[in-house]
Each structure stands twice: as C-alpha cells, then as structure tokens.
Design a protein that fits this description.
By secondary structure, the chain is α/β, with parallel strands linked by helices. The protein contains 14 helices and 13 strands. Strands 1, 2, 3, 4, 5, 6, 8, 9, 10 and 13 form a 10-stranded mixed beta sheet that branches. Strands 7-12-11 form a 3-stranded antiparallel beta sheet, with no helix packed on it. Strand 2 (34-40), helix 2 and strand 3 form a beta-alpha-beta unit.
Length: 409
C-alpha cells in the first residue's frame, strides 16, 4: 500500500468544540493523498468517541483518550508515531490547515530537489465570542516560493537574529510540513523522541534547522493559528491565566521541569512568558547536546523588551517588565540589562482598517459571517492564488535567486 503523501496530525486536550470543527473542515477535503491523525486527550473520552463513530473515513487514524491524561508532549509524540505519511504537519485543535497545501509542497520539491522542510505564511485568527471586539486579519496576497539557506535559519534559531517577540526561524512540524526522513533523524539524534522540551514547537524547529538540509518557504497562507478563549496563546497575554496554564502543564508533565539540572542558574523561568519559554528550549539543547551559538543574549534581551511592550495594560506591562529586569540583573552580572529597554504602548483606539496595504490585504474577521478559522478560511480562500496555476516551467527548474518561483494570481 502506498504511503500517504502528507499526514496532518491534530492533538487535542479538553477542547472538543473546536476539535470537532477542525475535523469537519479537514474531512470536507476530497484529497486521497492525505492522512489524518486525530488524537483525543480529554478527561471525558465519550464525547469525541461518539463524534468519530459517525465519521468513517479510510484516511483517518483516531487515537482515543487514554485512561489517564497524557502530557502535551506525549500526546504529540503518539501522533507522529502513528503517522505514515512521507511528510508530516501538526496543528492545534483550534487551528486550521488546508490539505491542498500538498500541491504547493509538490511544487517546492520540484523546485528544490532534496527538500526536507516546507513552510508557508499562516494567518492569525481569534475565535469569535459574544463579547469579541471587531478585528482585522492580515492576509498575504503574494505567493512566492523562497529558498531559505540553512545557515541563515540556524542563526535565527540560535542567535535570535531577525527576531521579533520570538524567533523567526520557522520550520517546526507545527504549521510546516517536515519530511519523515528529517523527523526520524531528529528522533535518532535527540533522545529517541520527536519532542523533548515542553515548548514543543520551538524544540522541534531548532532541531529541524540544526539537522535539515534544504528548506523552502511559500508566502501563500495554507493554515491558521487559531486562538480560542481556552488556548495557551490567549493565556500568554494574561499573567494570571498564564500562571494557571503553567501549573497545569507541569502537573501533566509529571514534575516541575524547571528544577532539572539544565535550568540551574538560568533565571529565565516560564512565568516570564513567550520569549523565556523559547530560550529555555535553547538552554536545554545547549546543556544536553552542546548545540547552540554564542552571542544570543543581546538579541534575546531586545525580543524580551518587544514582548513586554505588547502588554497594553499598564499593570501587566509593569509586572512583566519587572520580572524580566530582575532576571537580566541575575544573569551574567547584569551584562545585558542595557539591551532590555521595553517601551509601554497604550492600546490603540480608532476605526478598524480594512483594504490593501502593499502586498497585504486586511479583512474583517467576520467576513462572510465567519466565526471560526474554518469559516474565515472558506471566505478568503477564493482571494488567494492556486498552486495548480503555477506555470509548468517554474515547477521543474529552481531559480538561483532567493525567490525561486511565483504563483499566478
């Protein structure tokens, strides 16, 4: 039996409402070259078990909830172990991914023989609730393919080059497609597991960048980072909720991993939020495998300052800034405090912008009556270029420039 070209994995934990809609969107696809691995990790397994019983599809591998809750790491691990595709991608249960990305992936392989990792632009969408404010969503209109040199990605991953509030290296199995060969090399090289540090996406991204050979990025969006009210991303911007999330994560993990030897004397604890959670994964790789680059600290301090500046509530900004300032003061004699210069920016008020701006289009998040990533993507997908429209000559001959192909509009 021929292996599926792409396996899409969706691990879930107690978010059945969002999980069901994501599953529904994926199963609407008529593609036969994709496989779906749905892994429920809920305290009440009956809900999803009944839902999946009514959805018989040969493309689906369903992993029901175990008798006891798995850690997020173990739930993701079993997804990849169950996957049989030549390429694998993982999304969250409140996210979305378009199986038609396979067409773009095949083009990227033709353009870059030996390709091991394929990334794309991802949209960001907050699930609509009764009290949600009206928002806009930035939609890239370009559909260019970019050759991404491994040394550039390595510097972005381990020295925080070109970083914003976090790394811009990309190419995690989360919202990218990674070849089975690369993922299996990662597992063989790093502890016999696909994931080790609890910041799973960046743990995997750094390893892929370290071991991978050929990378291509496409500006055309094929997935959505969904943020539901119960998501970790949503909690990351609320210090009180983030503390609850951390406590739950450590409980499910089975121990406080910040007590492990690799964290000794390293003051950037998880309560510092997103940049600290990412730099911890780097610290783990440095301590455990000697993998890293020197000279990351100043760039990390600047990213931490940008992160603090995203807190528009004055009290949250002050609390997070003070936590980071104390951590930088305790690290290497405060040598990088000078690079940590957060600026408070009050929440902007004004009319919501929609329309084109450069190569981007800003649209209302409720376009076409959308209330979820699935309904939003259905509304905007018709505005985007189709991989099948790429001229045939560009599918078979890579260009030497950074932009190696362009989808027809």
């Amino acid at each position: 039996m021929t292996a599926p070209f792409l396996t899409i994995c969706v691990p879930s934990r107690n978010r059945q409402r969002y999980f069901k809609e994501t599953i529904g969107f994926l199963l609407d696809s008529a593609r036969e070259d994709v496989e779906f691995v749905f892994a429920d990790n809920s305290d009440d397994p009956a809900d999803m078990k009944g839902f999946m019983a009514d959805r018989v599809d040969a493309r689906v591998t369903y992993l029901p909830s175990p008798s006891g809750a798995l850690s997020m790491k173990d739930n993701w691990e079993r997804c990849l172990e169950a996957a049989t595709g030549r390429w694998i991608s993982v999304i969250g249960d409140d996210d979305l991914i378009d199986p038609d990305l396979v067409d773009a992936l095949k083009i990227a392989i033709a353009l870059k023989p030996g390709l091991e990792a394929f990334g794309w632009s991802s949209l960001k969408y907050d699930w609509i609730t009764d009290d949600s404010p009206l928002r806009n969503v930035q939609v890239p209109l370009e559909a260019t393919f970019h050759d991404m040199p491994q040394p550039l990605l390595f510097r972005r991953a381990f020295r925080w080059d070109d970083a914003g509030v976090t790394l811009t290296c990309g190419f995690s199995v989360y919202h990218s497609a990674i070849s089975r060969g690369l993922l299996d090399r990662v597992r063989a090289r790093f502890g016999g597991r696909y994931f080790e540090h609890p910041t799973l996406d960046y743990d995997n991204a750094m390893k892929n960048v370290a071991l991978g050979r050929d990378f291509v990025y496409c500006r055309r969006p094929f997935s959505i980072f969904g943020t539901c009210p119960e998501s970790n991303t949503s909690a990351a911007w609320s210090p009180s909720r983030f503390a609850e999330t951390i406590a739950r994560t450590k409980s499910e993990f089975g121990r406080d991993y910040e007590d492990d030897p690799w964290m000794k004397g390293f003051p950037f604890h998880t309560m510092l939020g997103m940049p600290a959670s990412v730099v911890q994964a780097q610290q783990y790789l440095r301590f455990t495998y000697g993998l890293g680059l020197a000279g990351w600290e100043a760039n990390f301090a600047r990213s931490s300052a940008l992160y603090c500046g995203k807190f528009s509530d004055p009290e949250d900004f002050a609390a997070m800034t003070e936590r980071y300032r104390a951590a930088f003061a305790a690290y290497r004699g405060g040598s990088f405090l000078k690079d940590f210069q957060p600026v408070f920016t009050p929440k902007r008020e004004g009319k919501l912008f929609t329309g084109p701006l450069g190569s981007e289009l800003y649209v209302e998040d409720r376009i076409g009556g959308a209330t979820s990533p699935a309904s939003f993507y259905r509304a905007v997908n018709g505005l985007l270029a189709r991989p099948a429209d790429l001229p045939a000559e560009l599918r078979t001959a890579a260009k030497e420039s950074v932009v190696i192909a362009r989808l027809a509009a």
